[in-house]
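Practice problem: SalK
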Amino acid sequence: MTITSGSDVPADAPRRCNTVVNPFHAAHYFAPEITRELTALGIEKGRAVYFAGRSAAFGRVGAGVVTATFHSFKHDVIAQHVPHVWDIASPEQVLDARLRAVDGHLRRLLGEEAVSSAGMTEAAGLALRAAEACERAVRPLYAAHADLPVPDAPHLALWHAATLLREHRGDGHLIALGHSGLDPVEALVTHSATGKGMARNWLVTMRGWTEDELDAAKDRLHGRGLLDAEGGLTAEGDALREDIERETDRLDRAPYVHLGADGIERLIELMTGFTTALVKGGAFPADLRGRA
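Answer key — structure tokens:
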């Protein structure tokens, strides 16, 4: 593997790529197919479906590993489902079910023509090439998924590559958050304040934090000058969030330096088309984004 110097790769390339690659992975979390497939295995609750599907690559881990690597979920909520979920279905069964769900959901929302297109095959090759430069060290979610085989079908290979790139960036993002002085709830609240994070109802129903815990985090952030009285970011809070994202970009640079400037632009072009189709097809809940 040869990695170039990257002098021709813009500093914002990792963020631009993530904007269109990450949704290709993340859409399946909200798809009826994943609920249906895991319910057939006996995993019926919404949070359990998410925890099982995303952590199955680790094998039969306990709640502590999931809390540490997922970061922004309340440990008590995770512990309600993990490791009990592995008594219901094995990680291997969950991984197989997840891939079947992804296959069904991409075929439903993109259509057979897109799934079997030359663009899909090209995008898969580009994303997999970028992922060649991802590093396993201190990247547990990426490393676990990197040990999984690449599916043969191009649309599933692209989804697998998108998963690798997403988790690699996510692991790096947690490194950046660890230096930020924000605890998990504060990280969620400040992200929501940017307008790009989850709305408050999702932080309660999915991430497991109570209304009181979210309000307490807002009070702490206001006291530190990071949020204003209306819950928006102050100039200092905005600067902190940008510092976190800039550091995340820096830690996520290697895959895109490896891909090169031309490959980056082509990957963005192809993934924009696929991701736009997923969004227009209703892959994500309308109320997902908002202020906490």
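Discussion: DSSP finds 17 helices and no strands in the chain. Students who identified this feature from the tokens alone can consider the problem solved.
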